[in-house]
Design a protein that fits this description.
Shape: elongated
Number of helices: 7
Number of strands: 3
Helix content: over 70%
Number of domains: 1
Order of helices and strands: HHEEEHHHHH
Keywords: Membrane, Transmembrane, Transmembrane helix
Mean pLDDT: 91
Radius of gyration: 21 Å
Structural class: mainly alpha
Low-confidence stretches: none
Protein name: Zinc metallopeptidase
Distance between the termini: 22 Å
Largest sheet: 3 strands, mixed
Strand order of the largest sheet: 1-3-2
Organism: Aquibacillus salsiterrae
Length: 230
Amino acid sequence: MFASLGGYLLYIALLLIVPLWAQSKVKRTYRKYSQVATSSYMTGAQVARKILDDNGLYNVDIEETRGVLSDHYDPRKKVVRLSSDNFHGHSMAASAIAAHEVGHAMQDAESYAFLRFRHALVPLANLGSNMSFILILAGMFLGMMNLFLAGIIFMSFAVLFQLVTLPVEFNASNRAMAQLVSSGVIRNNEERQTKKVLNAAALTYVAAALVALAELIRFILMFVMSNNEE
């Protein structure tokens, strides 16, 4: 009983505490380094433009977008969108995030394998996110294990998407660091501080992947145990 209770509490901790901790870490790190200007004193928009031009990506535009940490790269319209603070900011946080999003543009231009795979998974991942819990709950309440299994299969697509996201994001951050250094945007001890921003952001993706994987494993174990009881 205590073992099962301990396992359940550990699962709850993973499901709730880890993502909250990761989000808190990102916000604290971003808040800290958004107050520290780079020695180059370039805005996030200028950093993004410089790295794009240095890599021949003249067709990729840069736009300001609303929200906080709403920065992203739109592969359909070939646009790097930066939140207002990062678009206009001269900070290490602004430079790191701008370079990271440009890293995705570089991946897109090179047809980076994991990025292509993630794009291909989007329809299945969306279907899995929308349908998996409906099928699992229907299977549980109706006692129809085929529906339960179908829900697990749909969920696995969403989990796979989360796992494939990890190498995409880490690769974009590695590209960001290399470009920031080679372009002279950051220098000397600024590298260590910039890595803290990128690493903190990566934690959110790791946390999301862990939670998704834990959910999938829990339902797989429930399915196996139900079949064994029959």
